[in-house]
Amino acid sequence: MTTYIPSLTLPSSIFANPAASILLPVGLGLGVGYSVSPKSTQKTYLALHQPPYRPPPQVFGPTWTSLYALMGYAAYRAWTTGSTSINPQTVQLTKQGATLFTVQLGLNLIWMPLFFGLKRPIEATVDIVALTGVTGYLTYIWSQVDTVAAWSLAPYLGWLSFATYLSAGTGYLNGWNFADKERESKSSDTGSGFDKDYVNKAPKGE
């Protein structure tokens, strides 16, 4: 059973402020997404062998923005409800959830750099499995504090389950190695005349 760990928990002032609580995960998520390069990420996503039911890449941006906002609202709702409770157990569960929330946010933010930036599908899949587990436990903990906060995490938890399937499926179908999917191909967009492309991507014009 986890406990409240101040050094691994975002400041209470963030949880207590609705704007900060919502905008922090949204801003961090967008920042990580743009740091990895959306164009490069989309190219990689379309090039890799994918399991059935993969969504188009355009779906991910709006979906994740909405889920980050929902998780931020859940954090604000749980904190403002639970931290002022006269029940010491509820206060403790609220703080415990704040630590879990911070941990899951960190696990969330490193998945994209692992999967798309470093092209490490094994590590990325381990990360998202851990993320889903932590988020599931967080939902359970905060359900004892505020049911609205718990239900606000439900879409996020559902999406994480689907994302785990996509991460593991993509890793498996590509031999758990994305590095050998690249090849040199002629390009007029670079000074060297060559760029990186994935071997199973159809040539232009097909």
Strand proportion, as a percent range, falls in: under 5%
Count up the helices: 7
Give me the secondary-structure category: mainly alpha
Assembly level: single chain
Q: Biggest sheet, in brief?
A: 2 strands, antiparallel
Low-confidence stretches: 187-194
**For the residues shown, what is the average pLDDT?**
87
Your description of this structure?
Helices cover 67% and strands 5% of the residues. It is built from seven helices and two strands; from the N terminus they run αααααααββ. The protein has helices spanning 12-16, 18-36, 38-47, 60-82, 88-117, 121-143, 147-173, and strands spanning 182-186, 194-198. The chain starts with 11 loop residues before the first helix and ends in an 8-residue tail after the last strand. The relative contact order is 0.14.
List keywords for this structure.
single chain, 206 residues, mainly alpha, two-stranded antiparallel ribbon, 2 strands, 67% helix, elongated
Topology:
Blueprint: H1 12-16, H2 18-36, H3 38-47, H4 60-82, H5 88-117, H6 121-143, H7 147-173, E1 182-186, E2 194-198
Helix pairs in contact: 2-4, 2-5, 4-5, 4-7, 5-6, 6-7
Task: Give the structure's gist in a few sentences.
The chain has 206 residues and is mainly alpha-helical. It is 67% helix and 5% strand.
